[in-house]
Amino acid sequence: MLIPTLIMAAIAVILGVVAYYQGGDQHIVGMRVSYKMMIEVLPLLLIALVVAGMAQVLAEEYQSFISEWLGPQSGLRGILIGSMLGTLTP
Length: 90
Fold this sequence. Notes:
single chain; elongated; transmembrane; membrane; transmembrane helix; Permease
């Protein structure tokens, strides 16, 4: 997780430097746009992390039940259920 974070930080710094040297206030506008985007996305991201954590815990607890309904032996029923559940996730 550290390496992707460092790579994204390096890309952000490089783009910031490029925007600064382009002249004008592009680097300031870019920071304002990214701040607005962060404010819009942050609540959804936090909720998604909670849902992912809960789903992971429940999946471990109900592994045999999930395997019965969605595993290789479930056949067409498993494919249909998995497809329907997949349409609910963004």
